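re: ur question from yesterday

yeah so i grabbed the chain u mentioned. its 105 aa long if i counted rite. heres the sequnce exactly as i have it in my notes:
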Amino acid sequence: MIFDERVIQSKKETIYERAKQGYAKRLEEGSLKQGWALKSCKSRSPFNDRQKEFLNEIFEEGERTAIKANPDTVAKTMRTVRNENNARVFQVSEFLTTSGLLLQQ
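ran it thru and got these structure tokens back, copy pasting raw so excuse formatting
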């Protein structure tokens, strides 16, 4: 009789309940890996010397003209600025994003 009750109870178990139990089991085993929906934390690195010099030039120009620099424009300019030899000043890895400029002010 006890066996029959277990069979009946297991048939009533929903997919949601099975998923919860499977998740709990994997948590206990430590077999869960970071999934696609979880945010990953990127470490913030300080500006390098070229980035600092470029941003200081933009700031000083804004001080002289009394026109505040737009972070979008600064990020786009950073991608296109070239030196005397017509070579890019910044590598792709050194480009700053608008959000990166806003966060590290």
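noticed a couple things. Residues 49-103 form one domain. also The radius of gyration is 28 Å.
anyway ttyl
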